[in-house]
Amino acid sequence: MNTSICRAMVAAAALFASVLAAHAQERGPVTNLPLPRYVSLKANEANARRGPDTSHRIDWVYQRRDLPLRVTAEFEHWRRVEDMDGQGGWMHYALLSGVRTALVSQDMTQLRARPSAEARELALLERGVIGTLRHCDPDWCEISFDDLSGWVPKSALWGVAPDEVID
What we know:
Layout: H1 3-23, E1 26-27, E2 34-35, E3 37-41, E4 46-49, E5 58-62, E6 68-75, E7 78-82, E8 88-92, E9 96-97, E10 101-104, E11 109-112, E12 121-125, E13 130-136, E14 140-145, E15 148-153, E16 157-158
Antiparallel strand pairs: 1-2, 3-6, 3-9, 4-5, 6-7, 7-8, 10-13, 10-16, 11-12, 13-14, 14-15
């Protein structure tokens, strides 16, 4: 095999390896869990700080238990989180829960009996309602609100990644 073909093959292999590395999901240095990932607010009130320590200024005070948040970084016992509007800061990990919740992002979203636009409508959901995620396939999520549960298009929710599947 001539050297120019060998060089081209090596270059192609290196390019392929770099593409794979770029698509590999980043892991948190503390938990080894994927970044970004979604969590929910465990407390009724929680401070989001400018940096990962109680000496840092408070930028936001969240007052909504079960609010979905996206973890974007980790440092020791602190997690950098952001809300649906991209606001946030650093929170102590004890204020966060692994229970998956989602926020309805579109007003008058239809809650369906099955994951289909033709399925029976169970309720109309207002923007801002928070429910607990039960299951998500590529296009729909099963979500519960107290004593009511059904299916919502994933595109109408914030708190679950577009390509995420939850069993």
